[in-house]
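Quick one, probably user error.
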């Protein structure tokens, strides 16, 4: 019996992405391996969202190479992404998850039970029948996480999942991220919140002007940053 295909490691070699003559990613080389969450940090416009989309396979680089477990063309069947502002379908929370399950090929008979399990995992079991578009921002983000998990991904990309959320909603999202990571799903996420990066990251990738300027495990990054950009960013200074 053949082993199921993996998407890890994700290896980027000299990846460049330019749009209308503007360089968004500039010779990015990095490797994503199984383990604790990888957290991308950096100022607005650093290229974090674009890098997530390239890793997901949504954007094709202008130059360089992306490989998923040694393959340079891999359908995103084992990858999922949650955007900063997820779109809610005009149906209940449970209906949104059932739709995602159908798209993932789950049989009709199993969808309701599986949807209930996923909603329970993200703390939305009690509001399963509430219209998704009437949920709070934090609840919608957790619902988007449930939809992404319907794909049973090996890698989950999260783009600023707690942006503009209050502390209680942020904690709820972070709890889900920890639970997902504990199940062996690789989480790669971006954030502006250094506190969140400290709480969740296994390793840190600092980006600035489309380049990776420092990569290290989280404890080393925050205690002994080696580049001037990292030292300034950790100190709370603006990178421009």
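Nope, works fine. Designed sequence:
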């Amino acid at each position: 019996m053949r082993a199921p295909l993996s998407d890890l490691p994700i290896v980027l070699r000299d990846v460049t992405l330019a749009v209308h003559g503007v360089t968004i990613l500039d010779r990015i080389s990095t490797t994503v391996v199984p383990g604790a969450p990888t957290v991308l940090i950096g100022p607005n416009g650093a290229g974090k969202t674009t890098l997530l989309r390239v890793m997901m396979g949504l954007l094709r680089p202008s130059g360089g190479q992306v490989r998923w477990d040694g393959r340079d063309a891999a359908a995103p069947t084992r990858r999922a992404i949650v955007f900063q502002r997820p779109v809610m379908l005009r149906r209940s929370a449970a209906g949104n998850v059932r739709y995602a399950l159908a798209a993932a090929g789950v049989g009709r008979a199993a969808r309701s039970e599986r949807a209930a399990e996923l909603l329970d995992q993200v703390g939305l079991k009690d509001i399963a029948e509430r219209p998704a578009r009437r949920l709070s921002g934090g609840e919608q983000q957790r619902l988007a996480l449930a939809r992404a998990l319907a794909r049973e991904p090996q890698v989950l990309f999260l783009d600023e999942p707690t942006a503009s959320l209050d502390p209680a909603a942020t904690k709820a999202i972070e709890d889900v991220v920890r639970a997902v990571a504990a199940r062996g799903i690789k989480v790669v996420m971006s954030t502006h919140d250094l506190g969140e990066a400290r709480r969740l990251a296994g390793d840190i990738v600092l980006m600035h002007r489309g380049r990776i300027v420092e990569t290290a495990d989280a404890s080393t990054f925050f205690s002994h940053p080696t580049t001037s950009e990292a030292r300034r960013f950790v100190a709370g200074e603006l990178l421009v």
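The first strand starts at residue 10 and ends at 19.
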